[in-house]
Amino acid sequence: MPAAWRPRICGLALAAVAAVAAVAVVGCQARTPVIDAPFHDDFERAELGPSWNATAAAYRISGGQLEVTSGYNHPAWLRRRLPANALIDLDVTSKSPAGDIKVELYGDGESFDPDKGSYTSTGYVLIFGGWHNSLSVICRQDEHGEGRKAERSDVHVEPFRRYHFTIGRRGGAIDWAIDGRPFLAWTDPAPFGGAGHEYFAVNDWEADVTFDNLSIRPAP
């Protein structure tokens, strides 16, 4: 083989491998089951397991809870597709005065922040006590600027207090309650859904946060 051909052939071979890998990922996600009946995870096991796609090694099971410290916007994605309308319940605790309890809805099930830069989600981001426990928000993709769609700064995360999130999504309407009390709400005029917008995740920046008793069911 002429030496001049070798770089081109190697490049074509690498491109072919990448294309096959991309098809494999799409096929895998296409086979991921939809949550069409009540789903529950109490994390009472030793390892997170194949039902989750943790995009960083920071996630661990400890004391029957999912715990993460310094995840730096590497979500742990549940490998089950959300129904178009969903009710999500989750117990959460932050052990840090920074608060910063974060979940994502209707993302792609794969994405993460590769470089600790400005993170743009593939779905909605709900943050309780972000920015050093100064602000809570519902965001559409971007956590900054125009991505923030509802916010409040009058409630702060108390370290080691266990909170219960209830999040409902019906059509474009997102309603978020904490401990049974309405917290934030927003209606998206162009709601996410379908391929690329079907997954749930827990997430973290630097705080030490735990998640427990996840329940997801189709909303009536």
Largest sheet: 8 strands, antiparallel
CATH architecture classification of the largest domain: Sandwich
| Number of spatially distinct domains | 2
CATH superfamily membership of the largest domain:
Exo-inulinase, domain 1
- Alpha-carbon Rg, integer: 19 Å
Mean pLDDT metric:
89
CATH class of the largest domain: Mainly Beta
| H and E order | HEEEEEEEEHEEEEEEE
- The DSSP helix count reads 2
CATH topology label of the largest domain: Jelly Rolls
Question: What overall geometry do the principal axes of the alpha carbons give?
Answer: globular
Helix content: 10-25%
Structural class: mainly beta
Would you identify the regions where 5 or more consecutive residues have pLDDT less than 50?
A: 3-29
- Relative strand content: 35-45%
List how many beta strands DSSP finds: 15
Straight-line N-to-C gap: 65 Å
